[in-house]
TrEMBL record:
The lineage of its organism: Bacteria, Bacillati, Actinomycetota, Actinomycetes, Kitasatosporales. This is Uncharacterized protein. The chain crosses the membrane at residues 43-62, 83-104. It comes from Streptomyces aureoversilis. The keyword Membrane applies. Keywords: Membrane, Transmembrane, Transmembrane helix.
Length: 115
């Protein structure tokens, strides 16, 4: 299952970031990718990237290296359910991004309010 986990993480990166940025560039002339602005946005970005690195990359690599998960979680039905849920989630993320259309941005930008 670690290979499947790495594959789903790669799929999410390809569809949720790379393909969506290319589509956005095709539609609007710019990729929609922005650096986070403000402390809260940076903290959210760091937590998000940290979660992807730990759960999507480091954990499967650790399992490939011989480190085992909790025995209660290592049931084949649970592994298949997790893989199916991850794949379904990737599809839902891409569909939601498509629904945002030209408004899609990878990171929120600070909007100035008129004074």
């Amino acid at each position: 299952m670690p290979i499947a986990s790495l594959a789903v993480t790669a799929l999410l990166g390809l569809t949720g970031v790379a393909a969506r940025a290319l589509l956005q560039r095709h539609r609007t002339g710019e990729s929609g990718m922005r650096w986070p602005s403000g402390t809260r946005h940076w903290c959210a970005w760091l937590v998000s990237v940290g979660g992807i690195l730990l759960a999507g990359i480091a954990a499967p690599l650790a399992e490939l290296g011989g480190l085992r998960s909790l025995p209660v979680l290592d049931h084949s039905v649970l592994r298949m359910a997790r893989a199916a849920l991850a794949a379904l989630s990737t599809g839902v993320v891409f569909a939601c991004q498509q629904a945002m259309g030209a408004s899609w941005r990878l990171h929120p930008t600070r909007v100035s309010t008129p004074s």
